[in-house]
Amino acid sequence: MKNNRYENLILLFLFAFNYLLSANDFSIFPVMHADYESSGFDWVLEEKEIFTAGWGVGANGGYNNFTLDMNIYHSGLWGTNKNPSDLSTFEPISHSDGMHGSDDLDKPDIFYNNSFVKLTFSKNPFNINIGKYKQSYGPGKNSIIISERSPAYPRFSINFLPAEYPIKLIFEYSSLRSMINDDRYTDIDLTSIKNVEIQRHLTFHRIEYTPFKKLKLGFSESVIYSYRGIDLTYFVPLPFHSLQGYRGDYDNILLFLDFNYIISPKVEYYGVLLIDEWAMLLTFDKANRNWFGYQLGLVLNDFIIDNLIEVEYTWTDHRIYRHRIPANDYYTFNNPVGFWGGPHAEEFKIHYSQSIRSYTLFADISIINRGDLTEQMIYEQYYDEDISSNYSNNWVEKKKTIQLKVQKNNIFNKLNLSLGIGYL
Predict the structure, then answer these.
(1) What does R_g of the chain's alpha carbons equal in angstroms?
(2) Does pTM surpass 0.70?
C-alpha cells in the first residue's frame, strides 16, 4: 500500500511537470556525442587513435521574461591519458574525474565532465545572465578580448541594450580557476578536500558605439585579481585603470580598442588593439611598459551563394596576459581567457564554409607560431625592459594545419553527423 502511494505521487509529479513543460515551451532531451580521430591529429605528438564519447541531458525553453539553456554530460576519452596541448585544435578538458590508463576498452583513459547552463532575464532595455557558459566579446574568429576557446566558467552579466540609442553597455563578473595551490592553508588539515587553490576573478566592462550604420566601435577593460572574493571596487562604473590605484596596483588590467566596418553587405573589416599594463605618462618613452597585441580580419559574405570566407591575422607580445603575480594571469584552467594561442604568438587563419542543400562544407587553414614563455622573461619585462624587448618574434613552436569537413545537420531532427580529414 505504501509503495503504491509513492508510485501515485511520482506519477502525479511527472504529470504536473510534463504539463508545465508543454504549457511554457520548455523541453528536456538527451545529449550524446562521439568523435573518432584515426591518427589523433594534433591531440597527441605520436600518431595514434583517439576516441571520445559521452552522454547527458539538455534543456531549453522560456517562461515570461526568463529563458534557460542547459547541457550537462559525462564523457570518456580512449587512446591517451593526456589533455590536448594548448596549441591543439581540440577543446581543452577541464573537469577530469580520473585517469585510468587501462588497455581494457570498457574503461576510458580519462573521465571528464562538461556542463553549460545559462539563465537569462530580459526586460527591455536590459538583460541579465547568470550561469556557467561560454561568451566571446569583440570581433574576430578567435577573439583576443574574451574568447570561447577556454573551458566554460561561472559568469554573471548585465547588458544595457537600448534600441533607440546607438550604444550598448556590458558588465560581467566571472570566477576563474587559477590551478595554483593556496599556501595559506598548508597548516590546516584538508585531507578530505582534493586541493585548495588561490581564488581568481575576472571583472569586465565594455561599451559599443555605432555612430553610423556601417561602423561599430568598441572599448573594453578587463581586470584579473586574486587572493580575495568579490571586490566591489570594480563594480563602480569608472575606468578600471583609475580604480586599480585604490587597491594598491596589484591587479592585472588590460584595455581593448576595436572596430568593425561594413563596406558592403558582402565585405567587412575589423581590427582589435590590446594594451596591457598601460603607463600613460610613459607612453612615448623607450621603456614605456606598454605591451600590445593586435588582430586584423576580413569577412566576405555570399560571394558565392550561401558561403562565408574569413581571413584573420593575430599577433601577441610575450609580455601580455601574464603578470608578475602568477595568480593574476589572464588564464583559467591553464588556458588563456583571450587569444587561444596565448602570449608570444602569431596566427594566420583562413576559414571557409559553404552550404549545399542540407550539407555544410568547412575548410580551415591555420599557421601558428609561438615563442618561449619563461619565469625569467616575466622578471625581465618588469625590471629589465631593454632585455625583455629582444624576445619578440623569437619562435620556438611552429604548426600548420589544414582541415576539411562535411557536416549533415538535423538528421531525425536532432542528430548532426560530420566527416573530415586533417593535415598536420
Answers:
(1) 24
(2) yes
